[in-house]
Amino acid sequence: MLEFEYVLQKNIKNNIIMIKYFIWTKRLFSNTYNIYSNGKTIGYLKNKAFSQLVNGRFNDKEYTFRTKGFFKQYTEIIDNTDSSLTGKITYNSWMTRAMLSVNSKILNWKYDNLWNTKWYLSDQDRILINYYDSTTSGQINSDTDDSLLILSGLFIANYYKQMTAVSIMTLIVPVLAVTTVILR
């Protein structure tokens, strides 16, 4: 596993953009993503079991993601320093996009490939953060130090993975029940 951070400088229209690389890991049946820089844990994203709450920490900033709603779910982001509402995430029905509202700014989250192993967070002008995923680890390439944005991009992908798993189970359980009854 690669556990490093290095900075790449790009000259785009005379603007220097510093890109930081972070590694994240998650054990197969774990509910915690650990985020690393230079081999040290600098953050995490942790689901609470049987709860709509997810706690996250990145570079000494802590947030709680609180999902609400039933059919049209959304997530409020709470800054744990002062318990203030700092953002909101709204999801689309096809589970391929999301909109993040933070401090009167609108950012867009979107999958970047068919297999949903790449995604990004962008503003109106450019992509701010790219994410890459494998089964138990991934990489984050970011040109922002904003802890809230980095955690939010990882949170949204995790949210969609959980919703996909619930949808699959909703389809499989009735089929298994019917099959069991028929085979008796």
Task: Give a nutshell description of this structure.
The chain has one helix and 13 strands. The protein has one helix spanning 147-183, and strands at residues 7-12, 15-25, 32-37, 40-47, 53-58, 61-68, 74-79, 84-91, 97-102, 105-111, 118-122, 127-133, 137-142. The relative contact order is 0.14.
Topology:
Blueprint: E1 7-12, E2 15-25, E3 32-37, E4 40-47, E5 53-58, E6 61-68, E7 74-79, E8 84-91, E9 97-102, E10 105-111, E11 118-122, E12 127-133, E13 137-142, H1 147-183
Antiparallel strand pairs: 1-2, 2-3, 2-13, 3-4, 4-5, 5-6, 6-7, 7-8, 8-9, 9-10, 10-11, 11-12, 12-13
Structure explained in plain terms:
The structure is a single chain. The chain is α+β, with helices and mostly antiparallel strands. The protein has a single domain (7-183), classed as Tubby Protein, Chain A, CATH 3.20.90.10. It is built from one helix and 13 strands; from the N terminus they run βββββββββββββα. It has a twelve-stranded antiparallel β-barrel. The longest helix is centred in the C-terminal third of the chain and has 37 residues, at 147-183. The protein is globular. The N and C termini lie far apart (49 Å). Mean pLDDT is 87; it is low at 1-13.
